[in-house]
Amino acid sequence: MSSNKGAEMKRDQAGGVAGGVAPVIDGARNDSAAVPVIGGVRNDSAAVAAPVIGLTGGIGTGKSTAAEYLLEAGLPDAPARGLVHVDADAISRQLTVKEPGAANPVLEEIGKAFGGAGDNTRPVLREDGSLDRGAMAALVFSDPDKKKLLEDILFRHIIAEIHRQIEAAGEAGSPVLLDAPLLFESGLDSLCDSVIVVTADEDVRIERVMARDGCSEDEVRARIRNQMPDEDKRARADYVVDNSGSLEELQRRLDGVLQAIGAAR
After folding, report:
1. CA atoms of 230 and 184, how far apart (whole Å)
2. Residue 254 CA from chain centroid, whole number
3. Worst-scoring range by mean pLDDT, 43-52, 72-81, 170-179, 254-263?
4. Where are the alpha helices (DSSP H) in the chain?
5. CA–CA dist 29, 73 (Å, integer)
6. pTM above the 0.85 mark?
7. How many domains does the chain have?
8. Residue 238 pLDDT level (bands cut at 50, 70, 90)
9. What CATH code is carried by the domain that includes residue 201?
10. What mean pLDDT is predicted for residues 187-197?
11. Band of residue 81 on the pLDDT scale cut at 50, 70, 90
12. C-alpha span between 207 and 226 (Å, rounded)
């Protein structure tokens, strides 16, 4: 929790963006502690040379669109303007890829944990040992206990790789965008100097996901209910960006966040 002085500073820096950035004061981090924690050890030198910016948001908020723009825009006034993308979803996918003829201990663990059954009609693992992502999603999004079980299996492998990538970026002096839908749930926000939460009106989120995934309104609502509530994310964020409107509005708001983060360095 930041001091009032630090919170006011973030509010002033971001306040000029029309309808845009809404720093969450109660959830803001103490500026004196806002340095990456790598492998359990605070790395004070990395706070200046290689800031870590966390990005998260629920399904349908447009987090991926925000990530694309942040990577394109980069961090103003940083020695290495471009951001290194540490993508938790991409790491998760890589860990669950089945290479022909090769064992994958993560997939084997998933298969054992779920007994080979997905939604009672489709197996979680295919005959070749690869993951059926659709069956897995249908299972975990409808059952919080099974969702937690899957997360427990994946998290330790994902987090180890995230640590490795952040350490590599720090050694190169490159700022990092840590893009993780479960940033708070996994404790990865402890690695970040600042955290951006992308939100959107629920009706907008439902419409986007229905169009993207071809699922029903009830299915999308169930997925939203099975994620951390937006109000909890807001309470732990440094910057909250509403993405209920146009792409141009989102980009303008993200520009305000980048300017605020750059000015705070």
Report:
1. 12
2. 15
3. 43-52
4. 4-14, 44-49, 63-73, 88-95, 105-113, 133-140, 144-172, 202-213, 217-225, 230-236, 247-264
5. 24
6. no
7. 1
8. very high
9. 3.40.50.300
10. 96
11. low
12. 18
pLDDT for residue 95 is more than 60? yes
Give the Å distances, CA to CA, from 175 to 150, 193, 234. 30, 10, 23
Average pLDDT over residues 45-62: 80
Q: Amino acid identity of 164?
A: R
Got the DSSP string for 98-162?
Answer: --TT---HHHHHHHHHTTT-SSSSS-SB-TTS-B-HHHHHHHHTT-HHHHHHHHHHHHHHHHHHH
Find the domain containing 197 and state its range: 4-264
- 33-37, 82-86, 123-127: the lowest-pLDDT one: 33-37
Contact 220, 211 (CB under 8 A): no
The mean predicted confidence, pLDDT, of the chain is 80
- CA–CA dist 164, 136 (Å, integer): 27
In the chain, % of residues over pLDDT 70: 76
Question: Residue 60: which of 182, 181, 199, 209 has the closest Cα?
Answer: 209
Residue of 42, 36, 48 lying closest to 79 (CA atoms):
48
CB 6 within 8 A of CB 23: no
Closest of 247, 264, 201, 235 to residue 22, by C-alpha: 235
Identify whether the C-beta of residue 250 lies closer than 8 Å to the C-beta of residue 64: no
Question: Residue 122's pLDDT is what?
Answer: 63
Show the tokens assigned to 205. 């989120």
